[in-house]
Design a protein that fits this description.
The longest helix is centred in the last third of the chain and has 30 residues, at 93-122. By secondary structure, the chain is mainly alpha-helical. The chain is built from five helices and four strands. Residues 115-123 have low confidence and may be disordered.
């Protein structure tokens, strides 16, 4: 029987919670990004990336940015090959495609727009 960790004021940050995770690939089932069409606005997509999505009646998911910083692009110790998203299921083309589209959209569209807006504000 699995026991859940007891959360206190000292260990309730996302980084503390991430330290307790032993199998990050199991997180994909509940924390993966939606299809791009699942976000009604750019603001919702950005919130999922930067703040974490709200789950009605449950709470809030961690920001996808923090998940990527923790488990994205870590070398796969089992194969010793390149970079592997350790929180993404292995050999799942749908997960790979979804992850790629979401991250590409964030990096190529939203972050470039933020940079352009920031430059205009600075000028």
């Amino acid at each position: 029987v699995s026991q859940f960790p007891q959360f206190t004021a000292q260990n309730c940050s996302w980084s503390s919670i991430f330290e307790m995770v032993k199998q990050p690939s199991l997180l994909w089932a509940c924390w993966h990004p939606c299809n791009l069409g699942g976000y009604q606005t750019i603001k919702q997509l950005w919130a999922a990336w930067h703040e974490g999505m709200i789950i009605n009646g449950v709470g809030q998911m961690p920001p996808l940015l923090l998940i990527e910083q923790e488990w994205g692009g870590i070398k796969d110790c089992s194969t010793h090959k390149g970079c592997h998203q350790t929180w993404q299921p292995h050999n799942d083309n749908n997960a790979s495609g979804l992850h790629f589209l979401f991250c590409s959209f964030i990096c190529n569209t939203i972050l470039s727009e933020v940079t352009v807006v920031t430059i205009h504000v600075l000028l």
